[in-house]
Amino acid sequence: MLLTNTAGVLDKSGRLLTGLTAAQVDALFADGTISGGMLPKISSALDAARAGVKAVHIIDGRVDHCLLLELLTDQGVGTMISCNRVGRTRLARQAAGVAFRPHLCGCRAACRT
């Protein structure tokens, strides 16, 4: 679990990628989507996933109850990286363009982007 001050891994248009495999992360490195300060975070997550950790979660520590939301909901609040495959629920939601993002103001409402 990596707590950061960002929502997770974002695509080139700034949308949160909720679930990624190691192969997808490699592609994001290659096309320059992952750069700057995210490089060491994602590299560490990828190393852990390839070393046998089932899933690495990169989540925004500024969100109230972020650990509980990430671990106990299907949507999560960040990016989950796994070695071979990502949970079907997250992939289906990502393919449909649906993401769960709590408001940072603390109102506990949710946005769909």
Word description of this protein:
Helix content is 33%, strand content 19%. With 113 residues, the protein is an alpha/beta fold. Strand 5 (100-102) and strand 6 form a beta hairpin. Residues 100-113 have low confidence and may be disordered.
Q: What is the secondary structure topology, with strand pairs?
A:
Elements: E1 2-4, E2 19-21, H1 22-30, H2 38-50, E3 56-60, H3 66-72, E4 79-82, H4 88-95, E5 100-102, E6 110-112
Radius of gyration (CA) equals 13 Å
Kindly report how far apart the N and C termini lie: 24 Å
Instruction: Give the percentage of residues in beta strands.
Output: 15-25%
Largest sheet: 4 strands, mixed
Q: Which blocks of ≥5 consecutive residues have pLDDT under 50? A: 100-113
> Count of DSSP helices?
4
Described by the principal axes of the CA atoms, the overall outline is: globular
Helical fraction: 25-40%
Number of β-strand runs: 6
Strands of the biggest beta sheet: in what spatial order?
A: 1-3-4-2
Quickly give the structural class. Answer: alpha/beta
Order of helices and strands: EEHHEHEHEE
Mean pLDDT: 78
